[in-house]
Each structure stands twice: as C-alpha cells, then as structure tokens.
Amino acid sequence: MLKRINVLFGAQDMTEGKPMSALLKFSIPLLIGNLAQQMYSTVDSVIVGRYVGDKALSAIGTTLPIINLLLVLLMATSTGAGIMVAQYYGAKDKESLSRSIGNAMTLVFISSLLVMAVGIPLVSSLLKLTKTPVETFDMARSYLTTILWGVLGLGFYNIVSGILRGLGNSVFPLLTLLLTSCLNVILDIWFVAGLDMGVTGAAWATIVSVAVSAVVCIVKLYRMRDVVRIDAENLIPCKKLTGQLLRLGLPAGVTQAIFSMSMVFVQALANSMGYQVVTCTTAVMRIDGFAMMPNFTFGMAIATFVGQNVGANRMDRVSQGSRDMLKVSLATSFVLVALLSIFGRYLIGMFTTTEDIINLGVRQIRILAVGYVAVAITQVYGGIMRGAGDTMPSMWISMFSTVVIRVPLAYLLAWFTRSETHPQGSPDALFFSLLISWVIGAISTYLWYRRGTWKSKSLIPSSAPLTA
C-alpha cells in the first residue's frame, strides 16, 4: 500500500514504459488541476457578476491584462525551472536538480517583492493607460491593488507546482488545487455575498486560497528528500544555474510580456467601446480560459516528457510521444468546438442576465471556437521545443503574431466597422483579430519545429547524437 501511495504522489519517471501511458498518467491529473486553478478566477467573476453586477465584472476584466503583464518575471522563472528540473531529473543528476530548484525559489522570492514594489504604486496610472471606464475605475483599482499584495503566494505556488510537474508529479498539485478551489468558493461567497465586500472580497478570497496552495506544495517538495534536497546551501544563488534558468525562462517571460502588452492595447480598445463590451469580453475570456486549458495542459505535459527523455538521451521516445500527444490534443479540440457551439449561450448566462451581453458573448465564442484547433498545434509543437531547451522560437512567433498581426488588425477592423450602433467599431474586431493571430501562430510554430534546431538545445551533455 505504501509503495502505491509513493508511486501516486511521488515523482514520475517518464523515460520508461509506453509514451502514451506515461503522457496520459501525467496529463489527466494535470488537466483537472489546471481546470481547478481556472476556477479561482471564474468563480470570482460568476459571484461578482451575479451579486454585485455587470460593472463589477467589467472592473475585474479590466485588470487582467495588467496583472499578466506584472507577473512576467514570475512566468519566466517558472518556465525555466520546469525545463531544468525535467532534464536534470531525467539525467538522474540530483545535485544539479536540487541546486536548480533552490536557485529558482530564491529568484521567485526576489521577483515577487519587486513586482509588489513596482506594481502597487502604479495601479492608478496603469488603469488610466488602459482607458478604464469611469464607472468601473474605483472597483478595478481596489481589485488590482489587493491581488498585488498577494503576489508572493502566487509566485511560490506557480514555481513549486511547476517544479513538481517537472518531476512528473501532477497528482499532488491536483489534490492541493481541488482543496483550495473549494476554499476559494467558500471565501468568495462569504466575502462577496455575506460580508458585502464587493470586488475586494473576491480578490482576498483568491490570494488567501493561493497562499494556502503555495504552503502545502512547499511542504510537499521539502519532504521529497529521496529525489531533491532543499536546504540553505541550495538556496544561495549560483551564477551558472541562475544564468541557465534565465536563458531558458526569459524567452517565455518576454513572450508573456509581449502578449500581455498587446492585451493592454486591445483592452484599451475594448474599454473605449463601453463597460458592457468589457463585461461581455470578460465572460468570454473566462470561458476561453477553460477551453484553452486542455491545450495548455498537453503543451506542459509534452514539455515535461520531452525534457526528461532528452535528459536521458531517449529521442526515440520523444518522436513517439510527440505523435501521440498531437493526436490527443487535436481530438480534444474538435470536441471542445462542438461543446462551445452547443452550450455557448448557457455558459455566458452564468455571468450575466443581460440579454444583449449574452447575445454578443455567444457570437464571440463562435468566432473563437475554430481557433482552438490551431492552438492545439501551437501548444504541442511549442511544448516539444521548450522541453528540449529551445525556448526562443515561441518568443519570436508570439512577437510576430501579436505585435505585428493581432494588435494592428484589431484596431484596423474596429476602424472599418464603425457605425451608429458601434461608434468605436464592432466588438467582433477584438475576436476576429485573435482568431487570425492563432492560425498564423500555429503555422509558424509547426514550420519552426520542422527545422529541427530544437534537437541540439539540451542542457545535458550527450555522447550520442540526438536524432528524431
């Protein structure tokens, strides 16, 4: 019994056994966990939309691009740590594994304090930059400020759960998330509906729940002494390992920064269309978060799988696992497209009872639906390259598809669709531009993958050439 528990909650060696079995064993708990994590923000939106109103939901939506932009450095650290952990674990290098994890935890601590120090004083200025509607400005400022006070817990949860995933352990983060998601729902109802704290209550519910998740995951990692050693010595920054971590993670951070900055400009365009459009897009993007989650999960799963097998010099398994993951990802995307087409109206109706907003939301969901197939391709092939240590392509592709394509196209379509009903342009412009950028991103990612340069990016010295 003890052995079974250790297998379930311990690290998973993905360099042995059938690739499909290993990927599914890792992916399914990870997917459920990611969906539970998405519940944090969605429950906030549903409860706020229902108990406080459309303007409050719009206020939360206004802050999302800003929050993502401020968390760029944390994203970079988490991505770099995940790749290093997977490759060093696959190579059975416990010393480098332990020191990499210690360096990552120190870096995320410093990064979190920096985000708080820079972000909190700039809240009002950032909201003005995105042209936040006057009707929702005060609520948005309150929500964003509260979330930023909880960045330390958010940073540690993301880094430690990413480390556990790099070790192949997706079950423990799942159970932790399920527990704290329930806590988040309880606190949301209590703070927002019971204590009438409005959007501030929703923010407090989120940061308290995330902080609990972080503590639980840190304790779990510390107790995995047979796999990794977390002590004061390993927390001291090492120039070489920190450099590796930043080299691997910064492209992902820059990618996130580019995407977030483009979202700030797109958010400003949405804000200029009025708070009802922002309310609608907030609801749509919450649903989009769930629809995206399988693709993101499969991308993380194949990155971990590739990282471990590249570290073990098992490129034959990389080829087979990549094909298997692509099949699963595409099949899932087709199912999602069907479900969104059928249940779109019901899903939007969870957030608001305003009929005009529901109708607009259903149309926007239908515009995006087909794009999830493109995202599946991007995530799988991008995950393969990231797992091998080649993180630069995603940065360049993201820069092209968002800065060169998405943002200018959104403004151009909005300008061409101006009318008496929509003086600032049709809200459809926001989503057609996103769909087109997804398709271009998928094509670009696949073509870069086919070049094959990712095969020579491993951190682990190998005596055999990498061929796949």
List the total number of helices: 18
Instruction: Determine the structural class based on helices, strands and strand pairing.
Output: mainly alpha
Oligomeric state of the chains present here: single chain
Mean pLDDT over all positions: 79
Helix content: over 70%
Strand content: under 5%
Spell the H/E element sequence: HHHHHHHHHHHHHHHHHH
pLDDT < 50 runs, ≥5 residues = 1-10, 462-468
Radius of gyration: 22 Å
Anisotropy-based shape: globular
Query: How far do the termini sit from each other?
Result: 39 Å
Could you describe the largest sheet, including whether it forms a barrel? none
Number of strands: 0
Characteristic key phrases:
single chain; 468 residues; mainly alpha; 0% strand; disordered N terminus; disordered C terminus
Give an overview of the whole structure.
With 468 residues, the protein is mainly alpha-helical. The protein is 81% helix and 0% strand. It has 18 helices and no strands. Helix 5 runs antiparallel to helix 8, helix 7 packs parallel to helix 10 and helix 17 packs antiparallel against helix 18. The radius of gyration is 22 Å and the shape is globular. The chain starts with a helix and ends in a 17-residue tail after the last helix.
